[in-house]
Target: Methyltransferase domain-containing protein
Amino acid sequence: MHELYTILARYYDVIYRDYAERIPETIIFVEEVFRKDAKREVRKILDLACGTGIPTLELAKRGYDVVGLDLHEEMLEIGKKKSQKLGLSVQFIQGDASKLDFREEFDAITMFFSSITYFDEEKIGELFASVNRALKEGGVFIADFPYWFIPRREPYVWDVENGDERLIITDWRELENAAQKLHFKRVVQILKPNGEVRAFYVHDILNVYTPREMRLLAKDYFNEIKIYGDLKRKLGKKAGRFWLVAVK
Model:
């Protein structure tokens, strides 16, 4: 069980508040990619690893027909409640991104927040094949991934308020150079007003890909591959975060 996406699901939007605030700008960039690279009009979108629906709902606000898919029901339940509160019609479904049942149903498929790096070299081919099957001809797959993974052995401690609770979060990273794997470790302490403290340990293993590696891994599954940097939303700029853009 992954605590961040299950037990701590109701704190996810609080922990990633800064990320959520940047999502409208990110979607502006993604829409630019839709216009520039998709070979068909983008109306129906599948958002993989959608979590609590932060980007999913932003896409829906802009008039797209969006389906959000995630492994964790706890995250999806939050996404559904947010959708209802906003009066948006978004379908949230539980599923594995590498085993999609859809066949040529979507104009675009998105995968945000470095979720693609959870797939190692053996599994990422299954993901690409699954995405390819779900895309319509000329559809586009967009996924972001970081390259400049910086190990941080010294813990970084920060805090955030959630109503009358306070979360104290300790992050650190350990890099396996030979395996190109980053171990992202986190301790989340939840301080209640009555002095009660609960603590959770999170350990994510992410796969480090260079832009060249990502391009080579995807090329057998799509007709056209591009890698963009997203600095100031200018396509093609150098940046520490990259976007895989793959057209069927």
